[in-house]
Amino acid sequence: MLKTFRIGGIHPPENKLSVWKKVSVLPVPAQAVIPLGQHIGAPAQAVVKKGDMVKVGTLLGKSGGFISSNIHSSVSGKVSKIDSAVDASGYKRPAVYIDVEGDEWEEAIDRSDTPAKECLLSTREIIDRITGAGVVGLGGATFPTQVKLTPPAGMKAEMLIINGVECEPYLTSDHSLMTEKGEEVLAGVAILMKAAGVDKAVVGIENNKPDAIAYLRDLAKGYQGIEVAPLKVKYPQGGEKQLIDAVMRRQVKSGALPISVGAVVQNVGTAYAVYEAVQKNKPLVERIVTVTGGGVREPSNFLVRIGTPVRDLIEAAGGMTGDAGKIIGGGPMMGKALVSEDVPITKGSSGILVLPRVESVRKPARSCIRCAKCVQACPMGLNPSLLMNAAEFAAWELAEKNYIVDCIECGSCSFTCPANRPLLDHIRMGKGKVMGIIRGRKS
Residue 343 and residue 62: Cα distance in Å, rounded? Predict the structure, then answer.
């Protein structure tokens, strides 16, 4: 019987429209807008100024603290300005604007396609390269990778878990990466094992990707300690705590880190970025992005330079259909509606979803009917209805006592609610408020 996590979960339609589309290389944009905060933690501090000439791989921003990440240029050309730009959340953030001239790369980057499996670097050297290359979690959370590889004192990893689940409907970027760059992915997994000090790694892949499972299982025969585990299809299995439960049968306590149960979790895209950073000396300057949905003519997967405007991706996917109604950064469950097609692609951009107008309009919300479907669906064992009410009435103490901070914002509650109540919207707002209160209390 296939493994899966044990609390909650739902089965939304998969809608993997771009699943058989090979990854295409998107042309370099005329201008790249590269935000200095593409990760959880402190934004990077700019180390370039207007008029500077840069190449692909040139450092643009130095990490602003322990939980932070370097930012590099994904294009070559002239820095036209350092100004604010609207990000995927709709907020203005500091960014470096580069007018593209040619495509010149830093000489230290190895651009050959020959896989390099053997890594002779020490653990410290590996982590230093990952840090220098600005590698972050590519599953969406964008947590700086070097931080996960530097556990708190007294804690030690037992197992590396690689997230190849890609349970979010529509998205196929990770699936494409595994089937097209499997050797490099597993070489990256081996490097992460060495960095984490473990002798076992499990690549978790949902059973709706049989080609990826078979391909990586065959390749894994050439690597010691790497296992590929098929998992039952259930959303949100890509959540860190849910994946740990599925693979290790261990529950991470409220407020605790995965390392507390001996796990280090990294996305499959992160493993590939680690491979390129360590073996090719290549910073994180591009990633695979899915452009999909009923609102685009040709759902596709693209290899995209960081800083490319969303507009370019949509045009490359054949443009929007006449009935397109909403553009979402990410998937339909956890993604957010974009305010503009000029929003730039960042390290955390896994997909662009364009929904037809009929699918993008919310149904009218009605009164809660006390059916408890949201409670049954919640993978964190929370009471979403209670948390929504607490957020609506600013009952922050009640919200905190009922673990609102543990919400992973998966949207399972809103999806399953027969009354169409915007549970996640209120919980997300309340979670932010409570986290602010907790930070204020600690300071």
Answer: 22
